[in-house]
Amino acid sequence: GKASGDNKTEKVSINQHH
């Protein structure tokens, strides 16, 4: 997400997904 909060969650999800 563009929001700073969502940004952290998204990166973590992406890292776990990969």
Quick tags:
single chain; 18 residues; elongated
Specify the number of helices. Answer: 1
- Using only CA atoms, what is the Rg? 8 Å
Shape: elongated
The N- to C-terminal Cα distance equals 18 Å
Q: What share of the residues does DSSP label as strand, in percent?
A: under 5%
Summarize the amount of helix as a percent range.
over 70%
N-to-C series of helices and strands: H
Secondary structure: number of strands: 0
Protein name: Fibronectin type III domain containing 4
Could you please describe the fold and organization of this structure?
It is elongated, with a radius of gyration of 8 Å. The protein is mostly helical and 18 residues long.
Write a compact overview of the structure shown.
The chain has 18 residues and is mostly helical.
